[in-house]
Design goal:
By secondary structure, this protein is mainly α. 57% of the residues lie in helices and 5% in strands. It contains 5 helices and 4 strands. The protein has helices at 26-47, 54-74, 89-103, 119-144, 151-173, and strands at 12-14, 20-22, 112-113, 180-181. The longest helix is centred in the last third of the chain and has 26 residues, at 119-144.
């Protein structure tokens, strides 16, 4: 099978189920952004050392699996949804457990933090912001296609929180100073 099919040369693509849709359809925008997030998540995974951050790498592999499920749900006709992997409430609970674990022992936040301090911290924030965009695109798609399972945008919402918490944990692990944003009100 060849990588190129030429079927998308005129600006359409196939959904799971065979229906053609314009490449700027909200579903395509949503799953394309989730796909972008998956690529960034894989890069973050690869930035972390297996020994030192094996737990976080394993979490990110699980996140990648769930992102592929989100993509398939966003890329499918309604009739195919029952045949696909679901995003379940326990997936959201699992993310919450990861968040709680990441934040254990870290100081309570009183200010916004700047997305810097170490390359892995910065990359966690790249994942967080792309995740927020994926969530926005998914919400827009769900407004037009109500068959999109409601746990997909909920998962993306929780996942962005996970990336924030992961960035804080990695910053602490790498001894990076957590830089807080304190607005200059003196102007």
């Amino acid at each position: 099978m060849k990588i190129y099919t030429r079927t998308g040369d005129r600006g359409t693509t196939s959904l799971v189920g065979g229906t053609r849709a314009p490449k700027n359809d909200p579903r395509i925008e949503a799953y394309g952004t989730v796909d972008e997030l998956a690529a960034h998540t894989g890069h973050l995974h690869d930035l972390l050392e297996a020994g030192r951050h094996g737990e976080q790498r394993a979490q990110l592999v699980w996140v990648l699996d769930r992102l592929m499920s989100c993509e398939s749900l966003l890329a499918s006709e309604a009739s195919w949804l029952p045949k696909l992997p679901r995003i379940r409430p326990d997936d959201l609970s699992r993310l919450e457990q990861y968040i709680d674990r990441a934040l254990e022992g870290l100081p309570e936040l009183r200010h916004f933090t700047l997305p810097c301090g170490h390359p892995a911290v910065s990359y966690s924030h790249i994942c967080r912001t792309v995740c927020r965009r994926a969530e926005r695109r998914t919400v827009s798609a769900a407004e037009r296609y109500p068959e999109i399972p409601e746990n997909v945008p909920a998962y993306l919402n929780r996942l962005s929180d996970y990336f924030y918490a992961l960035g804080r944990r990695l910053g602490a692990d790498f001894g990076a100073e957590e830089m807080c944003w304190e607005p200059d009100n003196k102007q």
